[in-house]
Amino acid sequence: MDEVKVVVAHSERATLQVGDVFLKIDSDQTNIDVEVEAIALAPIPTPQILWRRPPVLALARVPGMALGKLGEPSPASPAAWAAAGAAIRTLHDAPLPPWPGGNLDDITEHLDSECDWLISSGTLPADLVKRNREVAEAALRPWTPAFTHGDLQITHVFVENDQVTGVIDWSEASQGDRHFDLATLTLGHEEVLPDLLAGYGTDVDVDVIRGWWSLRSLRASRWLVEHGFDPNSPGCEFDVLRARM
């Protein structure tokens, strides 16, 4: 009998694995609504939806292995990263999903609130936060909306034989800034960015990607701390921020 494995669990959601089936349990069913619709719309490989019985969504395992893990060197080849870049470009060039994403004013307000907390709580030195807030400014500009995954972490893209076999976890998909997806996938893995862009294309502003590295790390740190994760682990968010100094 297959054992039950806890893939991720916190107060908002949990994902369990039983054999080749993943069970996603979410306290907010609108997240699952987005995931189901985004999977149907995305023009790239996605998990097969087996069934849905709120609050549970059952998905089939995608073949292959993840591109890597935050804090560890990526085991994927340059060709695999290029294939990921090509797949992401296909997604970004697809027709927009019918629901909007975050707006610039809300993103900026949230960023400044998180920076204030990081400094006032003593979680990070003020000069480190202020320097990364300056770097993040490059991302805070108008953008042409694209069909974005919204949470394109390195563990969410699977490859096999240098081909993308599946992209998972679509609950944050929306109309968004394509640079955000590229930055999220390469967070903590700056060395693979040239390989990713070899497949994606060269019409990318690397300074904007760097801005999103800082912005995402600043905005995510308090949530990670409060939900039992450690952004100070080697190669993770705090190291990303320190690399900008």
UniProtKB/TrEMBL annotation:
Pfam families: APH. Keywords: Transferase. This is Aminoglycoside phosphotransferase family protein. The lineage of its organism: Bacteria, Bacillati, Actinomycetota, Actinomycetes, Propionibacteriales. GO terms for molecular function: transferase activity. Residues 42-201 form the Aminoglycoside phosphotransferase domain. The keyword Heme does not apply. The keyword Acyltransferase does not apply.
